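Page header: ASSEMBLY MODEL / four components / 538 residues total.
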Amino acid sequence: MTHFTSPPSSFVTPPRQAAARPAASARAVSAPAFTPLYQQIKTLILQALGQGEWAPGVMIPSEAELAARFGVSQGTVRKAVDELASENLLVRLQGKGTFVASHNDPHAYYRFLRLRADAGETRETRSRALSCTSARADSAIAKALEQEEGAEVVTLTRILFFADDPVVYDEIALAADLFGQLTLERLAAQEERSLYSFFERSFGVRMIRAEERLRAVAARKDVADHLGFEAGSPLLLIDRISRTYAERPVEWRRSFCRTDAYHYFNELS
Amino acid sequence: MTHFTSPPSSFVTPPRQAAARPAASARAVSAPAFTPLYQQIKTLILQALGQGEWAPGVMIPSEAELAARFGVSQGTVRKAVDELASENLLVRLQGKGTFVASHNDPHAYYRFLRLRADAGETRETRSRALSCTSARADSAIAKALEQEEGAEVVTLTRILFFADDPVVYDEIALAADLFGQLTLERLAAQEERSLYSFFERSFGVRMIRAEERLRAVAARKDVADHLGFEAGSPLLLIDRISRTYAERPVEWRRSFCRTDAYHYFNELS
DNA sequence: CAGTGGTCTAGACCACACT
DNA sequence: GTGTGGTCTAGACCACTGA
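Prediction written out in full:
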């Protein structure tokens, strides 16, 4: 399909203005706006990803194939894929192909872990699950997961160690429809690099985005005990909401972090 | 200049492989690698920015002009400008032109401020400078600013208010060669939206990147007093190093933040 | 070698903002 | 209307990977 002269294909229907624009009387404000072809392609690829057409870690079709499939030029596919790659949903490897991003990729092991040791490069982490139960969402968790208060969630707690040093205590709540089969046994048995690798491989849920809100708090007694810290000492509290495809929130997490020899690193630009 | 057939121009000298690659014996590992044209263009634009050829906020030449100036196609310039825009060094405005990013732009007022009120959208901030003196860099500040220990720096302290609520206490150290003329009077007199707007307009120094390291600490007595807080209460400590062009670090900053009704917001992807 | 992504060009036309 | 950036195409060739 060419952008200018060919009839719209059944796959992609670029809203050519004359026909696509609603009558002026139908919309008072805010023009319908023009959606570029590459954006539509991006949406189509996103849908394929969301529907699991391509599993995490596998190669997606080549640019030429995608161009043929969607009836656009390779350059247009390229722009769509470029954006998805810059959003960390795809990974391009020259000479090899384009792959679905996965938390099992070595480069992504610590994609969501901003905590670092003050000295040394070591991020040898290990976790110990403490509990895993079914529970009812309180108002904060329900709101975060966009569910009704009292909805069923799976909750778990764990400790994260940096080189055998207990540094983070996590309280996690997961959407029950996706993680209903999670048990402490399965958590203890898994040997993945990160919880998200485990979720991805065992539950087919890929976390693609997250928001964090950080605060300084005084350590609760139980948390302090887990971290070998004194109650009342300052801890970094991180509330995180993680989302999968289509922006669906599926994890709420509250982390308590020791920052006596560790810090949260962030780059601004 | 065409990529394939024309001789190299004096502006851009793409390292064509046959001639440019050093003899195998000269390098043991790690090939010299190929540098794309658009990368070279990007570097040239970056140099022009660093040398102040275009002031912050002004429009840079159109893509067609830049293409002519550098002897490449418009598409190549476009790719270079695209990347600089995605790094927040340039701002593209369809129909208007491409502009040098500035901390005076409304959309950039809070570019480096990740602190938000828990409730409400208001980020009406105001600051009060407390002190401004010349000092010697201690080892931490010297290291951050890539100077010798004991080098002269300008130090200042201030309080940042959110809607008349004192929320952040800042200790700031600045490279003396750039900010030697800064005084408490000038700080008190300035009415810019942010310190970086002020630095940009009055000292010609544009902050383009920063790194932050966050920790939870117990409030020092003096800091607590400034924030109307109790000494020993948990505060969020943020160490920031800000850089101008060519990655040069020019500001070290330590912020103590109340997080009782505010939080540090971050997005992960 | 073939297949992948990566670069570069040239040209046409669209969307948007001014004047 | 003119000028700006934005989209799209078609085609050529380069760089890298792995069989």
